[in-house]
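User: Please fill in residues for this 162-position structure.
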């Protein structure tokens, strides 16, 4: 146990016993309060984060790299959702994907056409360029080989929705 925490009398709010030595709230209550403040004061929170990152650049990069290393699936899903949302915005398509939607697809999927688990990519069943929506029900996961073959079939006017 670090010196900044102690297990003693319970928290007055939730009865938790892991409390900060400098206050009356427990660790969980303090984190919940900080999260509520960040949500309620988004612009101030953003400024504070940017200021901290500029003052602690090396540590900020190390934390970011550690998160990327420990969460490769979330990183891949977040990047895929961002790319799909950016493309949908450019085409003026309806819908915006959340990282959680894409993560759920990747975690429970193999290629929809051949069943492999290698080199999986996000694919719109009806392409955004052909008026498809950017919603989870228009998504599927394909391996890179099948995604590229679907792309070339679409380019040649032979696209068939599977």
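Assistant: Residues filled in for all 162 positions:
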């Amino acid at each position: 146990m670090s010196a900044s925490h102690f297990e003693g009398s319970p928290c007055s709010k939730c009865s938790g016993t892991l409390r900060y030595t400098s206050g009356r709230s427990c660790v969980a209550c303090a984190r919940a309060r900080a999260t509520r403040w960040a949500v309620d004061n988004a612009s101030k929170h953003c400024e504070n984060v940017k200021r901290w990152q500029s003052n602690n650049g090396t540590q900020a990069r190390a934390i970011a790299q550690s998160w990327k290393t420990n969460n490769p699936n979330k990183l891949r899903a977040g990047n895929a959702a961002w790319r799909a949302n950016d493309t949908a915005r450019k085409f003026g398509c309806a819908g915006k994907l959340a990282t959680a939607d894409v993560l759920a697809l990747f975690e429970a999927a193999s290629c929809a056409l051949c069943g492999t688990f290698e080199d999986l990519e996000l694919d719109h069943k009806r392409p955004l360029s052909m008026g498809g929506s950017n919603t989870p029900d228009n998504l599927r996961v394909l391996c890179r080989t099948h995604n590229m073959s679907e792309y070339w079939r679409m380019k040649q006017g032979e696209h068939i929705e599977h």
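For context: The chain has a mean pLDDT of 85.
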